Amino acid sequence: MTWTLPHLTGIQRTTVGILNGLVAEGVPVRLTRLNLRRRRFEPLAADQLPAGVRRHLAGRAPPADAPGSATGPRARRRRKGRALIFGTSPAAANLRTAYREFGTAAHELRHSFGRWLAVRARETARWLPTPTLAGRTRPVPAQTCEPGGSFATGDVLLSLGASWPIEGHAPAAAALRSRGVCVLRMVYDLIPTIKPQWVDEPTAGQVTAWVRTVLTESDHVLTISEFSRTEIARYCHESRFPMPPTSVVRLGDELGSSRDETPPLPRFIPPRPFFVCVSTLDVRKNHRLLYDAWQVLAARDPEHCPDLVCLGTPHAYVGELMREIRHDRAVNGRIHLLHGIEDAELAWYYRHCAATIYPSRYEGWGLPVAESLGHGRLCLASNATSIPEISADLPEFFHPLDALGLVALVERTLRDPGWVRAREAEIRARFVPTSWAHTARQVRTAIAVATGNDVAREAA
User: Fold this and answer.
1) Candidates 3.40.50.2000, 3.20.20.70, 3.40.50.620, 3.40.50.1000; correct CATH number of 256-432?
2) More confident residue, 343 or 163
């Protein structure tokens, strides 16, 4: 309910994609939200969703010339005004990027301060004396969840979003289970739990508590790769509790923009041949390797070093890397960090790049690799964790710690266009994109298994 970005990131895209797929399959879906004050789930109308989410729902996308769209008249006027004032040079794009980074840092500071206050309040509460009455200890009332809401016995709660920061979500789901509601939840990966070095301590603790609740208090668990299922099984074994019934669903990777004949021009057009990386800027996403590779490329041939366009919102612990890139005169005119890119603009970058790059060190899936292949484009991809499950041989793989291996692939892409054409012809001939309707059918099967029904009756 608080989503403010104009585009969807991985979990939000998955949630909306599966919802659209279930609707397309004729499943009687009802939306629900957790009332934090009453601590229970209540009905939610689609019109109450944030505009940035609502516009991605099937049948609700605005026309191409709608005022709020990336190609609408207001957006065109904004881009034209920026071009007149600032110009269209890489320096202008870097200035806009620096301004967005400042806003992102301020946003992260506010959230970090809020998380610190919550943790500090819990720590302080442990030091306070328990209230007493007539010299005897007064028990602190347990927080309870109200019955009622939008569920009845036999219904299904399908929870696909990032519910770990929502206090009260787990007990509210447990209350539904006690009344005969079947609870299915999605675990995308266990990264904050088993790789805590990549997140802050409060997040690691919060997500770990959520993971344990999901794995011990769900009727069925969904995950997005065989690799993630293996990680879940290992974690359950190490934690000494039984692994819940778990189904792997392959995520949809079709973008409507991949079928557009003429995607609109984006707000920044690289002046040279360019590679594109679509990914949140995050430690595990491994943009440091891209920086290392581009330093090598710039040192070998400064004049012909290609551009690198990184499309993604900065996340935790990448501020120092971004500062290095911004002040490194060898590459700061070649590496462009952009975020707030909508699907229509993304399509242009996919269509016109030399190739895509995905260097991640650890993934639950790796959706941008599938999207690149769906566009028929060569993808230089890390061979780590789940990524080869997307396609075992259509990407060109490199080790996520091998910067020189990536440099060799970039150089071959630039100097051997015949090889690129042959690889992309093979991708177009062999790669079959996965529709969200297909993903939704897999979810329906999991619901049927969890409920013991041949056909899933209802998801909410």
Assistant:
1) 3.40.50.2000
2) 163
